[in-house]
């Protein structure tokens, strides 16, 4: 694989978007906001180019390797935030979310590249859908995680009557909660799809379901489903936010530790 | 340098907060009295232009006068008109002239002279004062420009600083906090307990802030109904409000009850019915209307009067931090205005006019044959002297300072003297 020149340009653009997001948080200005969105959008376009190059080099979808999947994850997170910005002009989140985009895009390039040829397991449309959905679900849960942190911060500001900068810039609690509900619902739906495709493929390829990854995906699924149910049952608020943070911990665990040490089908080798 | 008397701005004012009751009644103006005063002042030739800014905190007369007697005449006039001893009047009043008078108005418009620093109502009051003077025909170019500049400065201060951002009133602080819980208010319901003065004020402010559903509950239902009519809201019978608590997103306690009227059990039940949707309690009553343990219920936000007063005093400090920036803006805008006005004096204007003329003359002469230049120059100077003689005489002998400045302004404009 090449030197990821495009990828690094994208990271620089994301960094610029982050700086502008912080500036806008301090003194909101429509022009700064727009400049930030343009940086982010350009970064995403360049990043897409990098993913294309990866795909060409691998002769398959770019994310059958760990570094490719992390990179795709950052890209999807960026797309999701851009959509939110276009639809709701929601800018307070950017300063908190873009760093994750920066870090995951950078990790996607710093990890040693794998050049193993594609195997039957890592080929085909079903595989592509499986991984895309799974990563989309992770991106949605990351979104929910950031929203939950913002919820806890804002809740604390309101309770302590600290009506300062963050108080005035962050959205209202009910608004954050609504966005969180949407993020979790999307995450849950695509995770179900990813899991279903995964189970079908596992049956077909190995004839068994003995991958710990499946168990952890089920844990994730149950946890977020529980979150949505409790949200309707009166747990809305800080408890749901705490649950979402816990859920993100599980996601991280299953994406890293489970993939690398327990799972045989998800270790990117 | 000039023997011509220059027209000057002046200000005679009373700070009604600092005057005692007896004087305050004499120096406070209502709208009709403002009209009458403006008519008299300009009719008697005390001032050539006049605007009176009269609010519940201040009575200020801005005018344009010429010569040294303006202030004594004005003070005497007011003493006679309002039946006060001149000594008494001048003891409680303050006088300012020229730049000081203008600066005062700019600071007033910027909210820097207000009790509630940066408050925005004063902008409307200053604008009304200008309108009233315009209707009465007592303001022309100069005061008009002064007031428009002050108003523009006032707006600039509020948009470029945070002096008017942080709310100071209890109701607006409460609504700001609740706004950060609920987001959009328009679909939320406010329940006001008690229809006394505080309850009425809050209900009105909430409906002004865009709350569409206001419900009132009061021990005597007539008063609840009267208030509900005023804010186009509904009424809940007093006995039923604990059961109907779940309908309300924001509950405001303003009764004079000697013990709490909102109890934890009722709130817990309401939260169950609301499926945990947040509730916001505001206890403006002394002693408290909301039991302290209500605060512990999950997803309930509860604030008492003293909580909000803390925020108010913090916000006062926040606003005060913006004073230096605001003062700098005032000085910047003020110097623009003073620059414009300073140009409006007879001698400099005429000198500039001459300078402009001689430059044009020389340009014209340069095109003439060398031999004839000296003769043509004499001719041109003589012609210009003739041409200028009558306008100059009239300008210098104009007694009305406002008219004089207006004419100077016209000359500067017609001959493009401000363009460099």
Blueprint (SSEs and pairs):
The complex is a heterodimer of chains A (269) and B (420).
Chain A: H1 5-26, H2 30-58, H3 66-88, H4 94-110, H5 125-159, H6 165-169, H7 173-205, H8 212-235, H9 238-262
Chain B: E1 7-15, H1 21-27, H2 31-43, E2 49-54, E3 58-66, H3 70-82, H4 86-92, E4 93-97, H5 98-109, H6 121-135, H7 141-160, H8 170-182, E5 189-193, H9 197-208, E6 213-217, H10 221-230, E7 234-235, E8 250-253, H11 264-273, E9 279-283, E10 300-304, H12 305-321, H13 323-342, H14 346-365, H15 373-397, H16 401-414
Parallel strand pairs in B: 5-6, 5-8, 6-7, 8-9, 9-10
Antiparallel strand pairs in B: 1-3, 1-4, 2-3
Helix pairs in contact in B: 3-4, 5-7, 5-13, 6-7, 7-13, 14-15
Protein traits:
A: mainly alpha; 2 domains; 79% helix; B: 420 residues; Rossmann fold; 4-stranded antiparallel beta sheet; 16 helices
Kindly describe this structure.
- The complex is a heterodimer of chains A (269) and B (420).
- Chain A is an all-alpha fold.
- Chain A folds into two domains: 1-118; 119-269, no CATH class.
- Chain A contains nine helices and no strands.
- In chain A, helix 8 packs antiparallel against helix 9.
- With 420 residues, chain B is an alpha/beta fold.
- Chain B folds into three domains: 7-163 and 322-341, Glutamyl-tRNA reductase, N-terminal domain (Beta Polymerase, domain 2); 170-316, 3-Layer(aba) Sandwich (Rossmann fold), CATH 3.40.50.720; 346-414.
- Chain B contains 16 helices and ten strands.
- In chain B, the strands form two sheets. Chain B has a six-stranded parallel β-sheet. Chain B has a four-stranded antiparallel β-sheet with strand order 2-3-1-4, sandwiched between helices.
- The longest helix of chain B has 25 residues, at 373-397.
- The relative contact order of chain B is 0.10.
- The chains are: A mainly alpha (269), B alpha/beta (420).
- Chain A binds chain B through residues 154, 157-159, 161, 163, 167, 170-175, 232-239, and chain B through 166, 173, 176-177, 179-184, 271-272, 275-278, 298-299, 301, 303, 307-308, 310-311, 314-315.
